[in-house]
Amino acid sequence: MEKSIKKYWAIFLIPTLGSFAIGFVIPFIMGLWLSLCDFTTVTDATFVGFQNYVAAFSDNMFQHAFWYTAAFSVVSVVVINVIAFAIALALTNKLRGTNLFRTAFFMPNLIGGIVLGYIWQLIFNGILQQYTQTITLNEWYGFVGLVILVSWQQIGYMMIIYVAGLQSIPTDVLEAAQIDGADAWKRLWDVTIPMMMPSITICLFLSVTNGFKLFDQNLSLTAGEPAHMSEMLALNIYDTFYGRAGWEGVGQAKAVVFFIIVTILGLIQLNITRKREVQQ
Fold this sequence. Notes:
mainly alpha; two-stranded antiparallel ribbon; 12 helices; 75% helix; globular; transmembrane
């Protein structure tokens, strides 16, 4: 087997590398170049330096979208992970019908974001119309609606990861802590959570990056209304690129800034949480 792999490695590696280059590396490099150009298509790009970045950072709506997205990400990360962890704890305590509950909680994750957005828009508007309001009349209605929608969608997925982490904790460690006199809260804070840090690292990374990259649900639930005030970063970039004639370069510059922000936040979060992981 090893000799065959050494002999035919190119057959398996080259198509994969080619696909990766065509689908990611080349478009990424072109995106960096186009962010420094004024263009309408990739064939008529004119180099303008950092002019697009200056325009991007001068755009008040881009600044508002950043802080709106940051606030949403903080709230949604806390809500999603706290509730998902609590459900995972409950479902690993030998309750009846745990498999049914796991399936029920996970199912919303299988529904597309666009569909979920329209469904929850009908639900929220049905509630708010009693007070002659709709979810698009106030950006904070949209904020709360997005938090509820995304939490409902992602809690089940994070719960599965937490369940796997809880089941991997050696039972003898918990039994030893109980014998030493630690109560349930003490075992949770001093034993369970430290040994769950690999799962917590994964869930925090996914929820932080998903929060910043949110697009479908934002588009279908509020579409940035009223007056772009509930617009998050991804939707703001989309509207800049496709909604403003001559702003394609600025939209591309915003996309590069967006990529840098998400990358930095993800690396910082991974660095912080990995330091708190313990060996089992």
